[in-house]
Design a protein that fits this description.
By secondary structure, the chain is mainly alpha-helical. The chain is built from 13 helices and no strands. It has three domains: about 100 residues, MazG-like (Helix Hairpins, Orthogonal Bundle); about 80 residues, MazG-like (Helix Hairpins); about 55 residues, no CATH class. One of its GO terms (molecular function) is ATP diphosphatase activity.
Length: about 280
């Protein structure tokens, strides 16, 4: 039976959330929608909630972040409850697994190793420990374990990072930039002479090398693209606002006018940034 006192306790914390999840999945008294779900149907929501956390951070919407983190936490609770029902593992075991992993990966904090090392050295140590963990899981290939479900741009970044660990990498950024020029030329040629499938392949090659350039510049491409998306939205909204002042909508304008307004908005935003 659901613990109604705990469920309605505003200060119930984590035990309250777990009790609510159990009640939602109760076959007799729970929510029909929640009961019908399984790992595969919930996974898309988990990904979506993770992006909403990233979005709140990107916008510095700190008043929203608490709720978004709660939504993401609920996804972990949901998956753990379904696993518990199947006898796979419990939420406490999820938490213990993460705790064990963090302790093992931070011997300079929780063990005998010295903390007197650079962040770069700590990163190298972290990667070495993760390599040992993969070996224990019988993941023998260099690229084993890079999640298939990651966004493609982020997965490209991680695949290249793995390959670089074993020396499969360009030694200098200039080589990456040269490769970008090469791939761009191939895409241009493909546009005029090849099939749509071949054009798509060349476009993918160019994106892949762009992700590699980001890695060489210590830029996480997914984060950089999110920031570029946010900047585009802000500037285009500025164009729409200026058109509205003229009694127009974008569909009433033309490219030349909107391009001029875009430049004006860009200058205004840069001026505002310089003042701050």
């Amino acid at each position: 039976m659901p613990d109604h006192d705990l469920i309605h306790d505003p200060n119930g914390g984590m035990p309250r959330l777990l009790a609510i999840m159990r009640a939602l999945r109760d076959p007799q008294t729970g929510c029909p929608w929640d009961i019908e779900q399984d790992f595969s149907t919930i996974a898309p929501y988990t990904i979506e909630e993770a992006y909403e956390v990233a979005d709140a951070i990107e916008r510095e919407a700190w008043d929203e972040l608490k709720g978004e983190l709660g939504d993401l936490l609920f996804q972990s609770v949901f998956h753990a409850q379904m696993a518990d029902e199947r006898g796979l593992f419990t939420f406490d075991q999820v938490a213990d697994t993460m705790s064990d992993k963090m302790v093992a990966r931070h011997p300079h904090v929780f063990g005998d190793e010295s903390r007197d090392k650079s962040a770069e050295q700590q990163t190298q140590d972290w990667e070495a420990i993760k390599a040992q963990e993969r070996a224990g899981k019988a993941q023998k290939g260099t690229l084993d374990g890079v999640a298939v479900g990651l966004p493609a741009l982020l997965r490209a970044y991680k695949l290249q990072k793995r390959a670089a660990r074993v020396g499969f990498d360009w030694p200098a950024i200039d080589h990456v930039i040269d490769k970008i020029a090469e791939e761009a030329a191939e895409l241009k040629e493909a546009r005029d002479t090849l099939t749509q499938a071949e054009i798509e392949e060349e476009f993918g090659d160019l994106l892949f090398v762009m992700a590699n350039l980001g890695r060489h510049l210590n830029i996480e491409p997914e984060a950089a693209l999110r920031a570029a998306n946010a900047k585009f939205i802000k500037r285009f909204q500025g164009v729409e606002a200026k058109l509205a002042e003229m009694g127009k909508r974008p569909e009433d304008s033309d490219l030349a006018e909107m391009d001029a307004l875009w430049d004006a908005v860009k200058l205004e935003h840069r001026a505002g940034q310089n003042k701050s």
